[in-house]
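Exercise 7b. Backbone tokens:
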């Protein structure tokens, strides 16, 4: 569905045929009526990632927005703000040695119950650069050949956070989550099948030999990054991105060093992939 949808002054404008829509006519700094929440739920089910402009949300607004779509999750990799443990700061500047989410990933797929979605609000963005790219895992699954789909059916994959967070957070005695999920999952809302492996967390398909697993994952990681499965978002100050983590992957592009890119994220809890 690619036409623009207008309902109660809310405009949902698709950005590509497969993924992404920009939404206007909504003020996220105010509590949202149920009807608006339903419209946004429908938009995210269809477009997988939705974007808003000019929404200078406070931490309270941000939490309220997240809670309208489900219970909030505490990040299992990095600490939240002291007063708002459900809010994680996302920040890069001239002192940054790395940025979060530089490789393609689905947020915290290492968790036994990976998040349903994430809401990122950036208040400060570089004048040029700092886009986020999102890829549709429905599109990735749909594009596979029938023999490949048949082969993936019934396979699982290991998603490990150790190699992702240990180098960033250091040796603090903490253990990081590691979980096994189906390679192809069924979206609990749309009932559509999507690929659920990503280059950041996924390490191994245990039913295959190491060589087979490396080859198949290498292919799937490359396949998931095809440009025609993607939408790329150009940030503006106080823009918000809200993505469905179950059927998308994303990559934060760090092409703006030493400029500042800064904001906050909340994460909405999800359930066990099936
Ligand atoms: Fe991310």
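Sequence design result:
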């Amino acid at each position: 569905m690619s036409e623009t949808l207008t309902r109660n002054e809310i405009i949902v404008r698709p950005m590509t045929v497969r993924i992404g829509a920009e939404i206007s006519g909504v003020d996220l700094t105010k509590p949202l009526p149920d009807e608006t929440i339903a419209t946004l739920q429908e938009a995210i089910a269809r477009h997988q990632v939705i974007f808003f402009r000019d929404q200078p949300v406070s931490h309270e607004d941000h939490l309220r927005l997240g809670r309208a779509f489900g219970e909030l999750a505490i990040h299992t990799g990095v600490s939240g703000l002291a007063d708002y443990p459900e809010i994680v700061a996302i920040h890069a500047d001239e002192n940054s040695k790395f940025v979060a989410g530089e490789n393609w990933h689905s947020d915290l797929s290492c968790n036994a119950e990976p998040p349903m979605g994430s809401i990122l609000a950036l208040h400060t963005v570089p004048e040029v650069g700092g886009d986020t790219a999102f890829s549709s895992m429905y599109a990735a699954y749909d594009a596979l050949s029938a023999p490949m789909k048949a082969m993936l059916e019934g396979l699982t994959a290991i998603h490990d956070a150790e190699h992702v967070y240990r180098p960033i957070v250091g040796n603090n005695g903490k253990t990081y989550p590691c979980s096994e999920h189906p390679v192809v999952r069924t979206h609990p809302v749309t009932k559509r099948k999507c690929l659920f492996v990503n280059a950041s967390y996924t390490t191994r398909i245990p039913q295959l030999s190491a060589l087979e697993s490396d080859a198949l994952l290498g292919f799937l990681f490359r396949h998931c990054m095809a440009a025609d499965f993607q939408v790329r978002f150009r940030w503006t100050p106080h823009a918000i991105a809200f993505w469905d983590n179950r059927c998308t992957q994303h990559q934060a592009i760090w092409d703006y060093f030493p400029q500042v890119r800064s904001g906050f994220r909340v994460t909405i809890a999800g359930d066990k992939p099936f």
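Instructor comment: The domain at 5-268 is CATH 3.60.130.10 (Double-stranded beta-helix). The mean pLDDT is 94.
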